[in-house]
Amino acid sequence: MKSTRAIRIITSLSVGVVVLASVSWLGLGHISGKIARISVFAGLEDRPEKISKALNYLIVGSDTREGLTKEELKELKVGSTATAAGGRSDTMLLVHISKDRDKAFLVSFPRDSLVTIPAHKSSSGENLIPARQNKLNAAFSFGGAPLLIKTIESETNLKIDHYIEVSFAGFAGIVNALGGVEVCTKVDIDDPKSHLVLSAGTHTLNGIEALKYVRTRDFDGRGDIGRMQRQQEFMSSVLNKATSTGVLLNPIKIVNFMNAAISTIKMDENLSKEDLLNLAKQMRGLSSGNVRTLTVPLSNPNGRVDGVGSVVVWDETLSADLWTRIRNDASLVDEVKPSPSASSTASAKPVIVDKFKTRTAAENPCGEIK
Question: 283-314, pLDDT tens digit by residue?
Fold first, then answer.
């Protein structure tokens, strides 16, 4: 039942940006032993070539209720069953950090994206499963992080530099450590499945309320597509809160934030503490206006394939353009100069073309700029 499925949320922007930017305050030597490591790149072959010093992080949210208190489970109105064997990756994001560390793109992958999962060994390791079409989240179930990385690299021709897996049990603590996170909804929300009730307008949500907000999916009829947009908006609010309230300049707040976040993170075996420290120093000047969120361009959000079921189909032309721009560390937004005419002047402003429908972290979903 959808109402009893594990909480699926995204804190990737706080993990992938705020955490990385704040670790230098604490001293990585104090926290490195608490970070679980995952071997994800061993054995991967024929990987895409890197052509810039930009970084690509794959951030995955795995299903689990483990770690939530009885009171939190009761308030969320979900059971205590933990993740099923094999795990599910209903939240998958690519975080691209520019070579100059002054811009970031956050791309959401719909979990039902129709992809070709490369040939891989069976779970027993005895049989070779041939390449075949399936949903993207099936790659994680069939072969964990390595097969998911191999699938995404094959589909995008982008090399994944690092992998972060987020367990969601500590998410409420992360939000509470920030003093709550502000969201804005244009319409009333009354979702009996996520048990979220919000009136239209701006609200500051605590941890449990935030969990309800990012898992709601059925109230507006847009399913996962609507949920991904709200998750992106929420991540933007996390970044705004973390940078506008002095969290990065307040060691006490950072300690609270890190204590809440660090136990939820698993990182790849190649991400060293020196890498984290250098990235933290480089990204201190990253502003919310230079972070753009978007979803893979789609041609059919309601497709169906025999033997696979309901799928989300990427727009071949737009998605190929997106991956090329990210690979080249190029802008996602174009500036087009006005055509010459008798009425035009040298001061005419260029037209902004945003064909990927991105949103900056500085934009409020109700249309205001924070």
Answer: 766 776 788 889 999 999 999 999 999 999 99
User: For residue 102, what are its two tokens?
Assistant: 């002054």
Whether 295 maps to a domain, the answer reads yes
Q: Which two tokens stand for residue 312?
A: 């989300």
Report the length, in residues, of the chain. Answer: 370
Facing residues of 294 across strands?
A: 107
Number of domains in the chain: 1
Cβ neighbours of residue 181 closer than 8 Å, sequence gap 6 or more: 175, 204, 205, 210, 234, 237, 238, 241
Question: Who contacts 12 (Cβ-Cβ below 8 Å, separation ≥6)?
Answer: 59, 61, 91, 93, 95, 106, 164, 166, 235
For 54, 59, 139, 278, 338, the CA distances from 160, given in Å and listed in that order, are 11, 10, 16, 19, 38
What pTM does this model have?
0.80
Q: What does the alpha-carbon distance between residue 195 and residue 173 come to, in Å, rounded to a whole number?
A: 19
Residue 206 in any domain: the answer is no
The CATH number that applies at residue 289 is: 3.40.630.190
Q: Is residue 340 part of a domain?
A: yes
